[in-house]
Each structure stands twice: as structure tokens, then as C-alpha cells.
Amino acid sequence: MQLNIGGAETHVVELAKELKRKGFNVIVTSNGGVYVKELEEDGIKHYRVPLQNKNPFNMMKATRLLKKIIKEENIDIVHSHARIPSFILGKLHKKMKFPFVTTAHWVFNTGYGLKYITDWGEKVVAVSEDIKTYLMDNYHVPEGDINVTINGIDTDKFSPDTDCADIKQELGIKDDETVITYVSRLDESRSLVAKQLIEVIPELDKKIDKLKVIVVGAGDDFNNVQTMAQKVNSQLGREVIVMTGARTDINKLIAPCKLFVGVSRAALEAMAADKPVIIAGNEGYIGLFDESKLSVGIDTNFCCRGCAGSSGELIKNDILKFFSLSENEQKELGNYGRELIKKDYSVSRMADDSIKVYDWALQKNKEILISGYYGFKNSGDDALLKAIIQDLKKYKESPNIVVLSANPRETMEDYKVKAISRINLPKIMKHMKNAEMLISGGGTLIQDRTSTKSLWYYLTIISLALKKKLKVMLYSNGIGPLEKKRNIAKTRKILNKVDLITLRDERSYKTLREIGVDNKNVKVTADPALELDIADEQRGKAILADEGVPRDAKILGVSVRRWQNLEAGFEDTVADVCDYAYERYGYHTVLLPMQSSRDMAILQSIKRKMKHEASIIEKRYSVDDMMSVMKCFGLCIGMRLHTLIYAVINAVPLIGLVYDPKISSFMEYTHQTHYLDVQHISYDKLRNALDDCVSNYDEIKKDLEDNYCELKGQAKLNGKYAIELYEKGSVAF
């Protein structure tokens, strides 16, 4: 908006200068300010544009000026650094179609409709991980569209070798005085620590010899801060506090100090100059910075967001703590900060981070549409979607993903990607115009046992994509059963036209060939969910405790579903075997719904039929959380495919209950022998399978671990092939 003193403003100036050094022709627009001269001295053109407030007349004028500048200067990329410029440029972007990048420096107020005048462009640079999370949670910016950068510091400008003789003369600083420097905008929203520091100076002056405090900055609260400083100076009978107002020679004002107090970019600049730092701001307090504070510093971008509040007492204690250290210990703190900045916070790296995002925006990546059974609160299909998105990101930075979902808002929130309604045909067709590729899957979408309606939905989406000349991939699908002649004929006709089919098992390959699909581009891989990471057991224990599962219990996990061909005594059989597992081996049963709306009733019925106490997972959890729960199980009896997949990933010995060929197929290709057909299940068969699992527990667990490594490698191929098809138009197996 303006180029006066401030962290975001300094970021823009340093970024512009470094981009120019790297060969870019950089043009800056703002309402002007003290840093314009520095830009122009570096040969960077600046246009004055009234971007400093929401005045409608200013915004109209700014719109006209920006449009003119973009046209006349032949701008290739527009990079905005504040809410008002981003809002105006967002409107222009829609008409002028220039690549549009923004940087999120701070968290904005989203109340009073302000959320809706915020535009984050096509791609976003976030200055910290917590701001990245804020963008995803509050604005549903896809994770793949955000790149986290750092506040890059010029370590030549901010250096222990900076000559500050002129500053010492100007401010009357004597060589034997002990100097503390504070730098920040002195707006009311930023001036808290300045006031807290000034309040404790009389106490500090009693314990620190020849104290001098330099307060640098200006803003709407400057007069109040200055009044406080004058009062303290009067009380002490000399000028201890020097108020400099707004300055651009911050490197020289930092140079004479023994200790720096401040936050964010100013603190990093002081570290670059080899100065020990107390990090404190309106957002919170980190304190005297050393290696133990690095993690919280990085997480909050050295802004203290979410930390305990700052206070004069905290500041005073840390200042006194610092001056109680030996000279060597003080020097070590300064050296640590400078080495950190040189290694991880260089201005060159900051510019490279932005250039990476410019490349993303210039590529204008066409969309990848993903069609499947998504948005139905089914943990198995959630796992598939999570795995597919992760797979694509491994092989392509910032893929432009759009998911067809039954619940687009929830899908956007959970997976940080774009999503649209799976039944909104006009919207699907609109996105197909902008798309390069359709991914259908994973899961068993191509089957008619559940319903013909479901099969025809997926085939219709594929057919529409083919008509729009999109590349089409079936992504690690299961195929079949297909029983109706009309369905087989339609499936054969459409699948022979798709560009690539990967299948999760050999049985699906056999079914595909049996129905007459002779497409040459077919490859057996493995279920995408097998590439998910092994879970966090501690998180699983916390969830189980919250759900009332006895602590330290040995757990038998059971996950079954309603199905049309279940035997009348199925629930009694499962309940009796769960009781047997408790009586014989001490296993407490935890009943795990994979899709609560369909599984909860049968699980509750099994619990009621049991003689011994059991637990049901009542809440709905994310894929990662469900995997964590599975990690805590000692044994698993599973009917849904992805229950068994979660078990294999976490090396939990398992018994499969086969209601569909995909279950027996999965058990076979994971080399597991304990599976039973639900139509012919009995207490004796299920009990014997449980006994055998317990007897051969260690061997089964080791076998699962070995098999998982191989299957994970096969699952990785899905993402590799998908991006190869997307970028090259074909795949070489």
C-alpha cells in the first residue's frame, strides 16, 4: 500500500532489489514513502498509486493507473503484497488475464464481510507455516498453490562490520554507553512492547551502567510513546531514551547496540548484524533468542503469534538475564543469530522462493479433475483421495487439482484442494474446458453389483471427458463384478478409449480382459492408499482414551458393514468370537465404523449381543486419525477393504471377511491366508482363524512389514504414470 517503515514494506524493497540483481525488470507501485528513494537509487522504477486505503475514489483511480501501467510496461507477472492492492488487481486479473501472485504477510480480520474483499491470486507466497495454515483454513486456498518463504535479509547490509560513527555522533551516543535498540512501527497495533520497555527503564537504569535506549519508528501512536519517553527521561535527569522517528538506515541504528528488542523482520535484521535479540511484540513473547527458541520462532515467523503475552516484567527479566551473562556468552548468542540468518534467511533464498511461484503462475497448469466416491464420509474413499493427491504432488509441484465431490466444502477443508459438486453437470462441463486430464478412481467404481446407476455415473463422466479431448486415466481401479450385458458392452466401449488404466490387483486385470477390453495401456500396480504413511501411535492412544477404551488394553479391532447376503446369524457369530477373544486372550473389542451412516447400526447390534464390554468409535475422524487408531490394534477383523489396507500399512495381523471379490483378491496379493466368505461363515471357522493369527502372530507381522514395502513401491507408480500422462500425453511402462 505504502513504502514507509514496516516489515512487509522492507520485505518488498529487499525482494525488488534482489530480483533486479537476478535479472528481472522490476517495477513497484505504492502510495509512496521513505523507501522509494532506496528503490530508485537501485534503478527500480516506482509509480505512485493511491493504494493506501479503501476510499472509493482512490480505489477507482488506482484501478485506472494499474491497468495503464500493466499495459504500457508489458508486465509479465503481477505480485501484490497487501489486501487493497490484491483486491483491485484481482478484478483486473479477471479481465486482463495476467499471471497474478500475492504474498500473505499477516493474518487479516475476516469479519464484517472483509473476507470477501480479499483476493489471494492464482498462487500465494506465505511468510510462515502458520499463515499458510490460516490461508487454507479461512480462505480454502489449495495447499498446492502456496509456497512458504522467509523474510530474506541482506547480510552485507546488516553486518557486524557496519560503520555507525555518524549515527553515534547524531544521537549523542558515547563509546562507553550500554545501548539497547528497539525497532517497530509505532502504530497502536504495534507499539505495546515499546511502551512496556519504556516502563521498566527506570528499574533497568539502576542495574545497567550508562544505559541508552534507541526507539526507532513512527506511526499513529508515536506521540503517546514519545510522551512516555520524555517522562522517563525527566525522571532520570538525562536522555536515556532517544526517539528517532521513521528511518531507513536501520542497519546503522542497530550497529551500536549490545542488545536488540523487537519482532519479525526487524529482529532478523538485528540477528544478521550479530546482535543478541529479545523477540517480543503485540502478538506475544518469545524472549531472549537462542537455539531452544528456534522452533517457535520459525513456526510464528518470529512474530510470536499464539505465544504467551508480552509484559514489562518479562522484558526486564530477560534484559537483566542477558547482561548477567559473560561477554563470551553474549557473543555466542550474537554469532548464533548471524549464522542462522546466513544459512536460512538470505535475501537470495527469499527471491528464489518468489521466482518458484512465478514459474507456477506462468505455467498456467490446466486442471486435473478427480472423479470418485468422494464427499460421502467414507474413511476408505477418503484415504484414496488423500493418497491420490499426495501421489500427484510427489511428481508435480503445485498441481491444479479439482475434485468432484458430494460435499465440496468439506473436501476443500479436508484436502486443501478445489472441489465442485459431483452432480452439477454445467459446472463439471465448465471445468472440463479448463482441464487437461480426468482421473477416475481409485476404488471399485467399474462394477454393477452395487447399482447400475453408480456405474453409469462414472462411465458418463469418463465419456464426457473423452469428448472434450481430455486425457483420461483409471487410477488403480478395481474392476467388477459386472453382470449385466448392457453394462459390460458400455464399459468395454468406453474403457477401450481411455489413455491409461492402472489396476490394483491381478483379478481386476483378468476381469477387464474377460469383458473384452483390449486397451494396450493397462498396468497392474497397487491400491493408492498403500502409499499412506505409517501412523502416529500416540495420537491413536489419545483418541481411544477419549472414546472410553480402557488404557493399556490389548485390542481386537472389528469393522463390518451391512450387506445383502449376510447370514442371519452373522452378528451373533462376530459377537461370540469377540467374547472368545476376551476370554481366551484378553482382547478388548473396539468396533470401528468406516462409514458411520452405514456401519454404525450393525456395530451397535454386535456390541449389544456381546457378553463382555466392548467399545465403539463414535466420532468421525480423519484418515490420519483412523490410521492412528488402527496402529493401536493388536488384531483386526475387517470386512471393508480399507480397514484391511489400514491394517496392512500398520502391520496389524488381520482376518478378512469376504463380501466382494476385491476382499479375497486383496488378501491374496498381500499374502494373507486368513479370510472367510461372509455367506459361509461360522463361529468355528472365525474362531480358528483368530487362534491361528495369535499362534503365528510374530511371523504374520513380519510378513506384513515385508509385503508392505513392496506394495508401497507398486502404489507409487500410479502417481508417476498420472503425471507422465498429464505432461507428455502418453506413458512408457
Explain this structure.
This protein is of the alpha/beta class and 733 residues long. The chain folds into four domains: 142 residues, Glycogen Phosphorylase B (Rossmann fold, 3-Layer(aba) Sandwich), CATH 3.40.50.2000; 151 residues, 3-Layer(aba) Sandwich (Rossmann fold); 168 residues, Rossmann fold (3-Layer(aba) Sandwich); 176 residues, Rossmann fold, CATH 3.40.50.2000. The strands form five sheets. A seven-stranded parallel β-sheet has the order 15-14-13-16-17-18-19. It has a six-stranded mixed β-sheet with strand order 9-8-7-10-11-12, sandwiched between helices. It starts with 6 loop residues before the first helix and ends in a 5-residue tail after the last helix.
